[in-house]
Input
Amino acid sequence: MSENDVGLKPKVKSKPKLDRPKLYKVILVNDDFTPREFVTVVLKAVFRMSEETGYRVMLTAHKMGSAVVVVCARDIAETKAKEATDFGKEAGFPLMFRTEPEE
Output
């Protein structure tokens, strides 16, 4: 090699480690006024659950006071919870869904 030759060294690219987005739970809160059938319809419509799965989630909330409906990214969880709660309000029921971070 002569003095004018430039030695080429490959650049090492390091990819930054990306953290997974924090997941959030959508929780169905039991109330004594919303009919069970209506809750099942909302779970089917908003969360795309089958009749049987929606019924089991509704029954769990009825017996335990609340039930986890789905775990997903924050923006999706908040959107689904608002959509389902609004669905109940439009029908005149105090149906409530809330979100909280998953541990």
Summary: The CA atoms of residues 23 and 103 lie 9 Å apart. The mean pLDDT is 91. Helices lie at 36-47, 51-64, 74-90.
